[in-house]
Amino acid sequence: MVLGSEVLLTDSRQNEKNFRTTTLAEQGGYGQICHLFPADSPAPRLPLPKMTPSAKTARAFIPALGKKLKRAFFGRSVHEVAPDLIGTTLLFNGVGGIIVEVEAYHQSEPAAHSFRGPTRANLVMFGPPGFTHVYLNYGIHWCLNFVCEKQGSASAVLIRALEPTHGLAVMRRRRGLDDGRALCSGPGKLTQALGITGHHNGLALDAPPFALHARTGKVEIVSGVRIGITKAVDLPWRYGMKGSKFLSKPFAA
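-> structure tokens emitted (253 positions)
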């Protein structure tokens, strides 16, 4: 039996004197490693495995966040804010993702909740910009909107879909499914995944539990008619991220 340049004796007693087992500290590794070597030789040093991912690997899992958006961002035409939201990141209690699909609504058209004037349910839409308007759709799903334009304008952007990036385990538990593309691919799906309900109506978008982060790069935006409505169906006020796999419905070619 040969180990390196050492010729081992066949006598078992001599072997016991000449050889010993390395300790965990001597190996400098993880877990107990048994390895025989001559007692008068230095303990071999095993290379340590890298236990933390590189910065590049980490970015592949959680994209970098841009600067936080303030309420002033929403004090513009709803038709400017809506496409500008594509590519931004929405977080609610640290859970959320990249906005990939939205729709714009204005008091002047009949599909808007504010069309018939202020009510208890839509009053926040007539207030200042940069606040949430959360309503129950068909008595089943909560829908999240961002109030835009000056006070009294009653305009808002409906958040239709996200690309999940933060808190995926939480979202999967809430939605009861594993497919990442289906977690937030619709207004009701994303509020369920993020845990948003009517209790969060009228909250500021630049203060906890909400956080909105600007884009970190350029995005290509497509537009088309809004979906799931029966009035003002011809207005091309739906905006989305071109090529996204996380849309509620593909845009027409």
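The longest strand covers residues 155-166.
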